[in-house]
Amino acid sequence: MNSPGEDLDRWQQRCKAAGLQMTAPRRAVLAALVARQDAMDAVALLVQAREHYPRASIGTVYRFMRELEQHALVQVHSEAHGRIHWRLAGTAQPVATPPDMDALAVVRQIAERLGYRLIRRNGDFIY
């Protein structure tokens, strides 16, 4: 297992390889993402980032998250009428599927987590 500093260095290299400029505020946001494995919204990211760089701004958080999304370096989690949450790509815990659960049940479970409900209409499933 890598130390947090090694992980941060590795993620900075990934960002640079994607052509992203790494400024002090962006490094602070990235450090906040590396430090926590769970998804965070922009406000939580800003609070964590300011521990590393006090002048980080909410605008920087949103712009940097958008760029990380465009390069598939973060995963986006959103709920109906809720805030967007981000986590570094590849750090999400996989959805555990019991062996007796069929694919439709998994899709239904995922839809419910996102605030949708699957219904059957004319033989097709819609949400």
Count of helical segments?
5
Q: Would you tell me which CATH topology of the largest domain applies?
A: Arc Repressor Mutant, subunit A
C-alpha end-to-end distance: 41 Å
Total individual domains: 2
Major β-sheet annotation: 2 strands, antiparallel
Arithmetic mean of pLDDT: 84
Give the tally of β-strands: 4
Instruction: Return Rg in Å.
Output: 18 Å
CATH class of the largest domain: Mainly Alpha
Amount of beta strand: 5-15%
Q: Reading side by side through the largest sheet, how are the strands ordered?
A: 1-2
Overall description:
The structure is a single chain. It contains 5 helices and 4 strands. The strands form 2 sheets. Strands 1-2 form a two-stranded antiparallel ribbon. It has a two-stranded antiparallel sheet with strand order 3-4. It folds into 2 domains: 85 residues, Orthogonal Bundle (Arc Repressor Mutant, subunit A), CATH 1.10.10; 34 residues, no CATH class. It is an alpha+beta fold.
Topology:
Blueprint: H1 4-17, H2 24-35, H3 42-52, H4 58-70, E1 74-78, E2 84-88, H5 103-113, E3 119-121, E4 124-126
Antiparallel strand pairs: 1-2, 3-4
Helix pairs in contact: 1-2, 2-3
